[in-house]
Design a protein that fits this description.
By secondary structure, the protein is α+β, with helices and mostly antiparallel strands. It folds into 2 domains: about 80 residues, Gyrase A, domain 2 (2-Layer Sandwich); about 140 residues, Beta Barrel (Cyclophilin), CATH 2.40.100.10. It is about 20% helix and about 30% strand. Strands 6-13-10-11-8-7-14 form a 7-stranded mixed beta barrel. The chain starts with 9 loop residues before the first strand and ends in a 5-residue tail after the last helix.
């Protein structure tokens, strides 16, 4: 008689709402996969799904409080680290399933649109000309393609305030740099594959830089500390160098 290892044990939800399944990730963590009920299923990442994960994180934090040590969301999953002195795999999985069973995509729609100013120029966008050359268009056309659509905030991670936005026009989608830069300036507006983002602080990075935003993307002194939330729409607005500096931008 063979016994399935506990690390492979799954709990599935086929109830109405957001489908999900759970797997043990380590001795004091588990991972919730959303949008499907087994590993073999494909999942379509949508803004609503990402908002549901954000809602799940809030529900779990409220219900389990000190039991939860940390939660790390991604586009379609949530890693939960818990205090193994207070609970065990079996109890935590049962609790998580009960809390998440009533998640509903229809309750996670957002209508908020945030407009963020961007100074587009080769002086602050060192990859602007390379993207234009790769696409066979002008730098002005790259800028217009970046401006022409609204972007959903899919998730926030990597660094506090680093919001993953999507999706950029196929024409200007670019892979990450083969060799990341040691320092990318705070406020840099960048593209990686079909995502776009703003670096909230100066940090290493391998995204393609096309401009700079003067808006503080993370400040613990502000309320809220981050000006965007999962599920929001972000719209970029081109500004001049003079406007950029007047808004507090740094060159």
């Amino acid at each position: 008689m063979s016994v399935k290892p506990e690390s492979d044990v799954q709990i599935k939800s086929d109830e109405p709402g957001v489908p999900f399944y759970l797997e043990v990730a380590s001795e004091n963590s588990l991972i919730v996969y959303f949008g499907k009920t087994c590993p073999q299923q494909a999942v379509t990442v949508t803004p609503a799904l990402c908002m549901a994960i954000n809602q799940a994180q809030a529900k779990l934090k409220s219900a389990l409080q000190s039991i939860i040590l940390d939660m790390v969301p991604s586009y379609a999953s949530l890693l939960i680290t818990y205090d193994s002195w207070q609970t065990d795999h079996f109890h935590i999985k049962s609790q998580v399933e009960k809390i998440l069973i009533d998640l509903n995509l229809e309750d996670t729609q957002s209508t908020r649109t945030i407009t963020l100013p961007v100074y587009y120029d080769t002086s602050v966008g060192p990859d602007l000309e390379r993207i234009a050359s790769h696409a066979g268009i002008t730098t002005d056309e790259v800028i217009q393609l970046h401006l022409q659509q609204d972007y959903y905030v899919y998730t926030i991670g990597f660094a506090p305030g680093f919001a993953y936005l999507g999706e950029v026009n196929d024409t200007i989608a670019m892979p990450r740099l083969a060799t990341p830069r040691k320092a990318v300036a705070k406020g840099s507006v960048a593209i990686a594959d079909k995502q776009t983002a703003i670096y909230p602080q100066t940090s290493p990075g391998g995204w393609n830089i096309i401009g700079r935003c003067p808006t503080e993307m993370f400040s613990p002194d502000n309320d809220p500390a981050i000006p965007v939330a999962v599920g929001d729409k972000v719209r970029f607005k081109a500004i001049s160098k003079k406007q950029f500096l007047a808004l507090g931008g740094q060159l």
